């Protein structure tokens, strides 16, 4: 039987590989949208099955280690965090695919003038994901917590995008289909931000053994 | 130390309690929307923190049992399924809250004539959730699989809702804000259907030890 540490390291690498694929998909989906690049969107859609297969692979690795190694304390937290982070990454991959699909759909509609704050929202959300993965790799609690704080900014940007698109639609009904696509893009970006926040909570839990979801920390829930 | 079976039974009950709360919230959110009932929507929003607390409690119970009892085979599958089902139920609770918020927002806008297929979509999605929980309780694989099949019907209804609302907005820009609210309601219902599907996949995995996500079954992935 191989050393447990080696197996945990392999799971860690696989999770980072998954994260890398998901990051690449978001980046391509957003560039496809901004540059009206069909090929990038199609690549995102082509890459999705591989992300799904990797999710199943990671789940299998983590579940097997839970069963065979009966880990405790930090190793147990790592394995349960890996299961949760894996799910969040796969859903981010789905959302990148949705953005790519909207991007393709937008190429068939008359263009809405204001992309408004969508590119800003996209960079913010991408930087949240990069930061939280960095926090995971380095075990940096402060960095993970900084991602929790960025979520409000994402919500503010989303509100401004919605307001501006609603206004545009009411003034010019011909842009309704394109504007609805952009509303969904903003919503998908917001949800990527939510998943990055979930991952940040898992990273804090992993490092400190403290559950920070839903302000649970105030009740000082501790898991060891 | 209490008997492991008793502890698993407690976790099972807690999960069903969580499911009951979530079901009640969806049902209230949908009725609030259809009947323009402000009070029901407010109750959904008030109940959300309790659902969140229960999620954390269930996660704690399942993680503790994984650590202390080092379960194997079906008990291990039950505990990992419980963790996943718990996450899906909590997200369904969030989606019920989003519908309740849209329902409140809709009370301030001029009404869109066609609620179109939204009530039909809502009943379908609610019946998927009821069925999958029934499948979980009874260990009924066939029932769980029937939920997987219903997902296409949800997607068809969503397409018809979107097409009809886009058309309405283009003909009468004054209904744009209300129609956008309804588009989000349809999207939230669709996502509740997705989560019910996730739970159905977990139930099949629990019963058979077969992973049916992303057509993984075709590759005959088996987890024991």
Structure description:
The structure is a homodimer of 224-residue chains. The first copy, chain A, has 224 residues and is an all-alpha fold. Chain A has one domain: Methane Monooxygenase Hydroxylase, Chain G, domain 1 (Up-down Bundle). In chain A, 82% of the residues lie in helices and 0% in strands. Chain A contains six helices and no strands. In chain A, helix 2 packs antiparallel against helix 3, helix 3 runs antiparallel to helix 6 and helix 4 runs antiparallel to helix 5. Chain A is elongated, with a radius of gyration of 19 Å. The C terminus of chain A is likely disordered. The interface between A and B is large, with 39 and 39 residues.
Oligomerization state: homodimer
CATH architecture of chain A, by name, is: Up-down Bundle
Round the Cα radius of gyration of chain A to an integer and report it.
Answer: 19 Å
The greatest interface between two protein chains, and residues involved on each side, is: A-B, 39 and 39 residues
Helix and strand succession of chain A?
Answer: HHHHHH
The CATH homologous superfamily of chain A is named: Phosphate transport system protein phou homolog 2, domain 2
CATH C-level label of chain A: Mainly Alpha
Shape by Cα distribution of chain A: elongated
The N- and C-terminal alpha carbons of chain A lie at a distance of: 27 Å
Strand content of chain A: under 5%
Low-confidence runs of chain A: 217-224
Task: Characterize the largest beta sheet of chain A: strand count, sense, and whether it forms a barrel.
Answer: none
Instruction: Indicate the percent of residues in helices of chain A.
Output: over 70%
Number of helices of chain A: 6
């Amino acid at each position: 039987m191989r050393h447990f540490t080696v197996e945990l390291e392999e799971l860690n690498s696989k999770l980072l590989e998954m994260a890398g694929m998901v990051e690449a998909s978001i980046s391509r989906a957003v560039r496809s949208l901004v540059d009206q690049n069909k090929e990038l969107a199609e690549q995102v859609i082509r890459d999705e099955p591989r992300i799904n297969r990797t999710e199943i692979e990671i789940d299998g690795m983590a579940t097997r280690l839970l069963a065979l190694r009966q880990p405790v304390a930090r190793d147990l937290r790592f394995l349960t965090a890996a299961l949760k982070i894996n799910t969040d990454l796969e859903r981010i991959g789905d959302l990148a695919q949705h953005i790519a699909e909207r991007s393709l759909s937008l190429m068939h509609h008359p263009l809405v003038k204001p992309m408004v704050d969508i590119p800003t929202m996209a960079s913010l959300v991408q930087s949240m994901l990069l930061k939280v993965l960095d926090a995971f790799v380095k075990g940096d609690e402060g960095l993970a917590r900084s991602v929790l704080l960025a979520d409000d900014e994402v919500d503010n940007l989303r509100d401004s995008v919605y307001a501006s698109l609603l206004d545009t639609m009411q003034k010019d009904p011909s842009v309704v289909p394109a504007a609805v696509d952009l509303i969904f893009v903003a919503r998908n970006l917001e949800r990527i931000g939510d998943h990055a926040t979930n991952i940040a909570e898992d990273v804090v839990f992993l490092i400190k053994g403290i559950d920070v979801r839903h302000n649970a920390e105030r009740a000082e829930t501790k898991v060891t």
